[in-house]
Every structure is written in structure tokens, then in C-alpha cells.
Amino acid sequence: MVNVALEGAEFFAYHGFYLEEQLLGTRFFVDVKVNFNPKNALNDDKIDNTVNYEVLYSIVQTEMEHPRKLIETVVQAIINKVVNSFPFISEVVVTIKKMNPPFNGPVKNSAVTINYIKD
User: Fold this and answer.
1) Active site residue 98
2) What is the pTM of this model?
3) Which is the catalytic residue, given 69, 81, 98, 118?
4) What is the pLDDT of residues 6-42, one digit of tens each?
5) Which CATH number among 1.10.3980.10, 3.30.1130.10, 3.40.190.10, 2.160.10.10 corresponds to the domain 2-117?
6) DSSP conformation letters of 46-115
7) Which of 28, 66, 95, 109 is deepest in the core (most CB within 10 A)?
């Protein structure tokens, strides 16, 4: 089993249920972890035998650019694109952390994690 991951990819985006969040935006951190059994021997040193984390980053960046009310919706969209791009994966875990959510007291971040496991 191979694990490929992006950790702490930072974006400024406009996701949020409240109009203020949609107008002002905030920082988000995104983690993506992908597990798979290699299609071919990894000692072949070919990018096609693994999950290209540059592609993972591009997927995350594209989805973070499309404002949505729910972080859950963004996480699910990332998972859907990852699974479509790499059909050989067995598991994807995506976490999005919203920094400084608008509450009445100090909160470092809120977070949503979805874990996809292939049937």
C-alpha cells in the first residue's frame, strides 16, 4: 500500500454559509491523503505508476476557487475529482480547515473531514 499526501495546502477562499464569509473570505488549509496499491513496480520510476501530487494540488486549487456555502460540499467535490482522476486508488481522506471562523469567541479553526473508501 502506498500513501501520497498533500498537507497544509493554504488557500484564501470565500466559502461560508453567511454572506459576510462569502464577501470577506478567509484562509483555509487543505490536507489530502490517497492510498493505493501500485499498478506496476514503483522501481520503474514512472509517474504513471503513482498518484501525481501536482495533479492533486491542481484539483484542490480548482475546487477552492469555486465558492460554496458548505465546506462539506467542497470536500466532496475534491474527492469526486480525485477518484475520477485516479480510479485505481483505494482510499481518499480530505480535510479542510477554515481558519478563524466567525464565532463569538476565539476559535483557531473549524474543520471537515470526509473519508472515501472504494467498495
Assistant:
1) yes
2) 0.94
3) 98
4) 999 999 999 999 888 899 999 999 999 999 998 777 8
5) 3.30.1130.10
6) -GGGS--HHHHHHHHHHHHTS--S-HHHHHHHHHHHHHHH-TTEEEEEEEEEEES-S-SS--SEEEEEEE
7) 28
